[in-house]
Amino acid sequence: MSNAFVVYVRNEEQVLLMKRADSVSEFPLAWDGIFGVGDANDLDVVLQRIKEATGIESDKITHIRTGEPRGLAFGNVLNEVTPVLVATSETHAVPAALYSECEWIDAGDMRTKDYSIPSLVEMYGDVGSYLYILKTSIGQEANVANEIRARLSGSGSLADIVDEIYAVLQSDHMRGYIFVEASAQHHVEKVIGRAGNRTTPLKNCRKVLEGEAPFRDIFPHLEPKAATAGISEGDIVEVRLGAFKGQRARVTNIADSKEEITVELFDAPVPIPLTVRADQIRVTQRVE
Question: Does some domain include residue 138?
């Protein structure tokens, strides 16, 4: 039975890390989650420890999941430590108990902390997730993503990691890369056949880039961009499709909600407003 736990408090894509005080006997000044002694499956014990260490009230906390215990050496004692993940909308925390400092950090930056308790990053993966970047052949992003999904939907040698990989993501705005959300990098390497010898290496997928990727760096590439993005009133454009293909025009109005623009053709004898989809024009000269 586990006799200790480490709680990870998450607010959206950030995780609360706590820095142990200099006076603490074990791992002074090390970064930590919220360490507590007791039954990790007793939610009242866990919530009380969060309040003691951060000041965040229990009614502001939502339990997400509790992982399996890990054997970790604290001093000369081997402890069974269980990771626990909770969520909160609170951003204000006041370090107390074992801790002198606290910091909200992107989960992908957790490994940058040069001194932490044992397996801080790995235990978070037991209950949370990280983003990993896969390098692919340019133009093969969708094929690689679909093949990974197909491998995870089967059985056989990959059955043991199906629950460790949560999502396969691709962006039309990043060529040569896809993203995998998973609990640990070695699971991603296994599914593409780069770890162990039982899985055929995935064609057109070169490697997993080393380390966890910060969510803040990836999310902008996953958000769909409006077709009108980058177009301004007054820009000179060329119509790419339709009856006016090849003609030059000036942008006079932009309807972002409809992803449409209104232009006036240069060669028309009488200026007539023409409304087209934003993806049907190409900007040739931007307004100063």
Answer: yes
Residue in 87, 118, 92, 81 with CA at minimum distance from that of residue 5:
81
Q: Which domain holds residue 97?
A: 4-124
Domain end position, chosen among 124, 157, 173: 124
What is the number of other CB atoms lying within 10 angstroms of the CB of residue 287?
12
| Rounded CA separation 181/150 (Å) | 16
For the chain, what is the radius of gyration of the CA atoms?
Answer: 26
Q: Would you say 252 and 262 are in contact if contact means Cβ atoms under 8 Å apart?
A: yes
- Tell me the H-state helices in the chain: 43-54, 120-127, 141-153, 185-191, 215-222
Q: Which of 103, 124, 145 is the last residue of a domain?
A: 124
Token reading at 142: 């969708």
CATH code for the domain of 196? 3.30.70.940
Q: What are the tens digits of pLDDT across the range 118-140?
A: 999 999 999 999 999 999 999 99
Q: What's the predicted TM-score (pTM) here?
A: 0.75
* Residue 228 falls inside a structural domain: no
Whose tokens are 């899985």? That residue is 199
88 is written with which tokens? 């909160």
Token pair in block for residue 87: 């969520």
Is there a single domain that holds both residue 30 and residue 102? yes
Cα separations in angstroms, 200 against 125, 204, 210, 252:
25, 12, 21, 55
Please give the DSSP secondary-structure letter assigned to residue 53.
Answer: H
- Assigned domain for 231 exists: no
Dihedral in degrees, nearest 10, Cα atoms 54, 58, 131, 116: 30
Here the CATH number for the domain that contains residue 270 is 2.30.30.30
pLDDT tens per residue across span 140-176: 999 999 999 988 887 667 888 888 999 998 887 788 9
Q: Which residues are registered as beta bridge partners of 74? A: 77
